[in-house]
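Q: Can someone sanity-check these two? First one:
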Amino acid sequence: MNFKEIVLPGAQGPLAAKRWNGGELPVLALHGWLDNAGSFDGLAPLLTGCDVVCLDFPGHGLSYHRPAGTPYHFVDWVPEVFAAADALGWDRFSLIGHSMGAGVATLAAGTFPQRVSSLVLIEGLGPFTHPDEESPAQLAKSLLFKPSNKRLYYSTREKAVERLAFRELEPHSAQALAE
């Protein structure tokens, strides 16, 4: 089965996605850190009977990127999940999250449980927590953090696939992420 590339209005900018199958059961798939919607290229076509939309989070894949120096906060992706679902006309839907996407899915389901019919976590990574008394210091540390904003560029697609494969990915998985 083939997917269709779509663009959805997000909470703060356009969200790219891959739509698979066109079935009845709405499923939103959320990728892990430094990945993209291509993470689900192997799984999505197997979910027959489901309308699977694999989202590129902001700053990933073909979705909008914030200006240089603007941080991406974990919780900021939760409104993007519901903006995508709203754009698709989904009142209730299932969430599949991988790694960081599993953490975002958990926050989304906990925030609006009436909208999430089921939750599937693959290599689930929940939000990191600290004791209450450490919250002010942790917030200060987060606000003072300056990311390097160094983006990697590769001269060819083959070089990008080679680099992704070095992360212990199968070559076909690296190819899907590079595309």
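And here is the second, same format, sequence then tokens:
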Amino acid sequence: MCNELVVQIDQMLERQQQLLSLAEQQVWDAFSEGIEHYRQQMILLIEVDIHPLEETCRREVTARLAHLLTENARLMQHIPVRLAALGSEITALQKSRHSARAYNEISLG
């Protein structure tokens, strides 16, 4: 179980780096698709009980999990930035819609 868990954490770290790269490049569609799978995998990883593992393995897994959480914090810093950008886009769309309505009312009126 130890090796499988280490491999799983390493895969999560790889996926995390891919997502971080997408966020930094602002490739939000691909980021959005990938983050959901990443979230599901994190939930599965959280549910793993490492207490039955032998001490050496438990230390290795704990160190990798700590690294994963540190990198996860870096990844999560990009989400508020994206939410703010989306908020601005929504506001611009609403203003555009209101302007179009006002124009139509004047044109038809």
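A (reply): Looked at the second one. The chain has a mean pLDDT of 90. The CA atoms of residues 16 and 72 lie 7 Å apart.
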